[in-house]
Amino acid sequence: MSASRALLSSPHGGASRTFTRAPTRLAAASIPFARCGALRARTAILSSPAATVPVTSSEPKRRISRSVSDSAPLAKPAVLVAEKLGEAGLDVLRQFADVECAYGMSPAELLAKVAQFDALIVRSGTKVTREVLEAGRGRLRVVGRAGVGIDNVDLQAATEAGCLVVNAPTANTVAAAEHGIALLACMARNVSQADAALKAGKWQRAKYVGVSLVGKTLAIMGFGKVGSEVARRAKGLGMHVIAHDPYAPADKARAIGAELVSFEEAIAKADFISLHMPLTPATSKVFNDESFGKMKTGVRIINVARGGVIDEDALVRALDSGKVAQAALDVFTVEPPAKDSKLVLHENVTVTPHLGASTVEAQVGVLATINVPMWM
Ligand SMILES: O=C(O)[C@H](O)COP(=O)(O)O
């Protein structure tokens, strides 16, 4: 498969187009979790808003009719929250569900626990494997992915187990785009390196001369939701923005002032390359020795998408040779990466621990958007 065909659009666009029209706008702030939980006791049919379509194909099977006379209160559903989410969102969830927050569980702990819950809410750090879904069979009805990427959930196994998977395709878009811009600027001006040096008592003004962004060419690889928001912001910084995405409409790019080009042209022309495609078998390690070889010497790379789209050993080689001058990475093939990772420890690499979606606002938004009780 050619590199061009291999690239899909952003996880913040591609995944939702592939699997779902997803619960994008559930009026989360005004009526979060409406139509759910305790309300079931007096609700005839739990139909969902038209815009809400789960990621997995199976419809909620237990959405049964109840007459008003058959209105004995139902027990609240039990929801296991496996990763840290916004407290304000959790408070709302608690009105409709018995919520247990168990952060940092090992895979074995999750396996032992999951069968006691009607729903499981995760971010990207929890692997919802076939084993987990099998362990939950009989009770677990919903997996809420409080974010975009669903590469950590075995969708096939979920479908077979009759378990819905619901994601939040837009609530963290701006957060991820802002983090991409933050990394771009920090990398160009050596902020993390200079900060560490100064804290170690070194005043090194000559060592940390940066490069300017204005007038430079930025290639956005994957022009979905996050990619296009990064493009908008980069235009504001005076950058020349080109983009590659085989599925993005040219008029969408044009409206932002970006030019859609081929994969080869994008990587060959760019001073900075920002990655925004989902991790799929087709995009795995699409940035490798061959593609680094086609880039300008001194190119700088930002990745807030998924670590697996880069061959990390090849990136270390490209950094060592100077082909890639710097990289700013929020995501890694294995998270957390090994403590002695050559990539993480490389002096020309700026790293953050998958913080793209980690803003107060986004973490309330994703929880409200997936609206887990509504699916029970
Ligand atoms: O897929 C996503 O939504 C982002 O990578 C953020 O992941 P997170 O929910 O684990 O922060």
UniProtKB/TrEMBL annotation:
UniProt cross-references to InterPro entries, sorted A to Z? Ado_hCys_hydrolase_NAD-bd, D-isomer_2_OHA_DH_cat_dom, D-isomer_DH_CS, D-isomer_DH_CS1, D-isomer_DH_NAD-bd, NAD(P)-bd_dom_sf
Q: Which SMART domains match?
A: AdoHcyase_NAD (SM00997)
Q: Which residues form a coiled coil?
A: none
Gene Ontology MF terms in the entry: NAD binding; phosphoglycerate dehydrogenase activity
Read off the CDD domains from this record: PGDH_4
- UniProt keywords, alphabetically: NAD, Oxidoreductase
What's an example GO cellular component term for this entry?
Answer: chloroplast stroma
The organism sits in which domain of life? Eukaryota
Q: Which Pfam families match?
A: 2-Hacid_dh, 2-Hacid_dh_C
Q: Where is the S-adenosyl-L-homocysteine hydrolase NAD binding domain?
A: 206-360
Return the annotated region ranges for Disordered.
Answer: 50-69
Q: Which PANTHER family match?
A: D-3-PHOSPHOGLYCERATE DEHYDROGENASE, FORMATE DEHYDROGENASE 1
> What family does this belong to?
Belongs to the D-isomer specific 2-hydroxyacid dehydrogenase family.
This protein is called S-adenosyl-L-homocysteine hydrolase NAD binding domain-containing protein
